[in-house]
Amino acid sequence: MHVLHFCLLIVLARGWSSGAPTEACSDIYPAGHNGTNSLDLQANPYRLDLAAFDELGGTLYYVADQSYKIVLSGMSGEEFKGFLVQARTLADNSPVGQFISLGPDQQLSDCVPEESAVTHINASLKTRVSLTWGAPDNGRGQLKFLFAVVDSINTFWVPAVTITLHRMCPTT
After folding, report:
1. pLDDT digit string, tens, across residues 1-26
2. By the 8 A CB rule, do 51 and 156 touch?
3. Residue 66 in contact with residue 134, Cβ under 8 Å?
4. I want to staple 101 with a disulfide (CB 3.0 to 4.6 A). Which of 23, 132, 150, 159 is the partner?
């Protein structure tokens, strides 16, 4: 009599079609995606449009406790499946501000603090995502936005960084 032994191998895929996991928060890198390096950021076809911020002489400013609309999109209509966006201070790279008024393809991430980052809610193709970010009520000095965009398990762009925004001090 022969005894047959069967082995069952279960593979868990860590695809994050429902949003970026907590592991992505530290460096805005899409955890679970293949490859050790992101694509050449010089050729990144995505941008985070900060046109709603105040501008003076080519320098962008934010006002404490104000909200701003920012738009993540492909420069030539490129489609993407996932994203993660977070504002951080230049001084210590800590998260700053909060995302508010979330759209249908958006959710707050698992980053700390929770409102500091926004991610996708599904893997449907997107060409543009409008986000609303609220500046902190106490200012926080200079800041930048970091963002990641995911096309597929093997194609992603991280960490893209916007130009520096400066805090506009109120006049007395």
Report:
1. 443 332 222 222 234 455 555 555 65
2. no
3. yes
4. 132
